[in-house]
Every structure is written in C-alpha cells, then in structure tokens.
Write a structure and sequence with these properties.
Strand order of the largest sheet: 4-3-5-13-6-14
Oligomer: single chain
Helix content: 40-55%
Order of helices and strands: HHHEEHEHHEHEEEEEHEHEHEEHE
Largest sheet: 6 strands, mixed
Number of helices: 11
Radius of gyration: 31 Å
Strand content: 15-25%
Shape: rod-shaped
Number of strands: 14
C-alpha cells in the first residue's frame, strides 16, 4: 500500500464517489480509479461495490476507514517533519540534557537563552545531578546527552571530548592567602577546608597532595556542589578547591579565585548512547557550550585526543 492509495481510499470514503475524490485530491477520475483498483489488488479483496457507476463501500471498507485515517495523519505529519528537517527547521522538539547542578545555575541559563533565541522551535529539559547520575540518565534515555568528567565509568558511550579544566582555590577575600597569585598544597597545610564530596576523583587527588606536603586534611565542611562550597568560603568557613570551568562563573566580592599550583587538569566531554546520534540542534548547542567555556572560563583548554582511548 502506498500513501497515495490510502489518500484516494480516504477521499472516496469521505466524498462517496470518484468525482468527489478527484475534486478533493485534484486528480483525474481515471487516476482515482487506477489507485483504488491497485489498492484492492494489493490487499486481495474489494473495498467497494460498483453499481451503475456508483461506489458502495463494503463492510470491510468501513472497518478499515478509521485505521487508514489515523495512518494517513501519521504519514502527513512525517512528511511535514522531513520537509522541516530538510529546510533546517526542526519543529517543536524537546532536547533533554544532563549537567551538574552547579552548571545549571551558572553558565547554562545565559547559554540556553542564546540558544533558544536561535532555535525558536526547540524546548529544553535539564536533568541535573552528579556525573554518575548523568551517566545513568543517558543510559536510561532520560537525557539525550550528558556533560561528564572523562573517562566515563561505563565504556559503552559515544564520547565527544570538549575541554580540559584546571583547578582554582576559592579563598575568603580577607584571608592572608588572598594576596597570592598562586596557591600550592603546602599553603593549605593546617588550613580549614571546604571540600567537594569524598567520592570525587578531585577530592582524592587533593587529599593526596596535602598528605605529600606532610600535612593533615582539615576538612571542616563537605559539600556536593561548587556553588555551595564557594558560598561557604564567602562566609569565612574555609578554603575550597573547585574546577575552574564552573568556579569561573560564580562571582562574589568576598571570594578570590586563585590558581592551584602545580596545575591539575581534568577532562570533560559529552556522552550519548551509540545508537542515538546527536541532532543538528544538539550539536549547535554543544558548539556554543564549548565556545563559551573556552572563551570565558579560566584555565581551560581544548582536548585534541579522546582521553582513555574513548
């Protein structure tokens, strides 16, 4: 069965004649008759009785009419959709993207505003949580793509490396270390710290650095977002160490952000399922994200080779 045959069947059912169908579809009566005969030959039984030039629908035709109508509507929507995609118009589409909580309240609001200004027919759903949660969201198709630290825990993703980010020390503006241009692990010995969750790779690296400096880790507060850690610093609770790609977008006149020495780099990228390639609007958003982070965040650099061989 072809879409044209179904259109003819639907038109004949609604108008009751080949003349009416030819008027609706702007086809000749002979073309209508050929399409109708072809459909009947395809399905193997008559849909209409021919009675002195009149068409009388069979019970089978009435039974098929509703299903054919629904199918014709689906095909019409599909045709409109392919026409829109071919013309670069994407229709009303929902993009589900996974990001860490801190990015959803810092870099993303303005970026999404600019993206939606370009993509008028797109809507966005933000799925927020830790990186392991984002991986699970992509795996479970709750998110179309996710922004994560690389390498991923699950190697079954398609990975698009984006950039590397350094680390910044968030220091209270009135702290004696606030005057320094760089801060090393030895400066943090016996200093009260506000550290990100203990299961994070960065946390393990920081504690190892402090131990190597022959100091103890004085974690006064453990928190799970960059925003909350910097807020603690602003209140004088302690010093925090945060990724520059997020910390750079959190402004406070009570906090100084100072590079950690020696430099420590972490890689970040976009993950998708292997059977779910990125659409053109998704790729456009990711390009805007990369450009924003590389141009506006401190201590960031592009990745040229996928880390971990992914």
């Amino acid at each position: 069965m072809t879409p044209k045959q179904l259109d003819v069947f639907r038109a004949v059912m609604s108008t009751g004649s080949t003349i009416g169908a030819s008027t609706v579809l702007k086809l000749s009566q002979s073309a209508i008759s050929r399409q109708l005969s072809g459909l009947e030959a395809e399905i193997g039984f008559d849909l209409f009785h021919r009675d002195r030039g009149r068409l009388v629908a069979t019970p089978e035709a009435h039974l098929l009419s509703q299903e054919v109508g629904e199918l014709a509507d689906v095909l019409a929507r599909l045709k409109r959709r392919t026409d829109e995609l071919g013309a670069g118009r994407f229709g009303k589409s929902l993009i589900k993207m996974g990001f860490p909580h801190s990015m959803t309240t810092t870099v993303l609001p303005r970026l999404i505003r600019d993206f939606l200004g370009e993509a008028k027919e797109i809507s966005v759903e933000l799925v927020a949580g830790p990186y392991d949660y984002i991986e699970r969201a992509v795996m479970g198709r709750t998110a179309d793509f996710g922004f994560v630290r690389l390498p991923t825990e699950d190697l079954g993703f398609e990975v698009m490396p984006l950039l590397s980010s350094g680390m910044l020390c968030a220091v209270p503006a009135d702290h004696h270390l606030a005057a320094q241009e760089r801060i090393g692990a030895e400066d943090l010995v016996r200093t009260d710290l506000v550290l990100l969750g203990r299961l994070r790779h960065n946390r393990q690296e920081i504690e190892e650095r402090l131990r190597n400096a022959q100091g103890n880790v004085q974690c006064r507060v453990e928190t799970h977002s960059v925003e909350s850690s910097i807020a603690m610093v602003a209140e004088g609770v302690g010093i925090s160490i945060v990724p520059s790609l997020i910390g750079s977008f959190i402004n406070s006149d009570r906090v100084r952000l100072i590079p950690l020495e020696p430099e420590s780099w972490s890689d970040y990228g976009i993950i998708t399922l292997r059977d779910s390639p990125l659409s053109r609007p998704m790729r456009r958003f990711i390009d805007m994200l990369r450009e924003t982070l590389l141009s506006q965040a401190r201590l960031t650099r592009p990745i040229t080779v996928a880390p971990g061989g992914q």
